[in-house]
Amino acid sequence: MGLGLGLLAALAPLAGEAWQQPGALDGATAVMTNNLASDLVERPVTELGSESLRAAMGQAAEWSQVFWHRAGQWVNHARAHYLRAMVANALGDAAQAELQARAGLVLLASFDHGRQETVDQAFLLSELAHALARQGRRAESEVERAQADALAEAFDDPGLDRWYRGRVARQAALDAAAAAQAGQLRP
Prior knowledge:
Elements: H1 3-11, H2 26-41, H3 51-71, H4 74-91, H5 94-111, H6 118-134, H7 138-153, H8 158-185
Helix pairs in contact: 1-3, 2-3, 2-4, 3-4, 4-5, 4-6, 5-6, 6-7, 6-8
């Protein structure tokens, strides 16, 4: 059994009746599924062609969002939308990535009155910019990218700087892989 199939089997019980009601394990399950989806979204781009791995990544992100919505606060909810946006962009679903990124940004606009989560905002804007670019909406993408980059320039933290640059590089790698695949599919 490959990695993707094994992960799908491990995630399958979450669809069972016992997990459909809020419970004491919701927070731990949110963390576990979040970490799983986060790991999968960073796998080598070449591995993202595996349908079972893609399905497991999508399911883990969806379950993470379900459990964060039950066990977390608004920051957790916004970060669950960010994870879903990253996963959707990795899966090539730019419309879903846009939807998730915008939902996370709405949460920040609604609750982050002290602007404590500008890092989250930068990363959400970056995923939104990527999603818009993948949909051919270049002008909108450039506006969102400029906002994300401006927020990132103010990080004043080398670790966050590397993480942000790494995400932007990852988006470029995903785009290159999609372009290469599209080129292979042409007659």
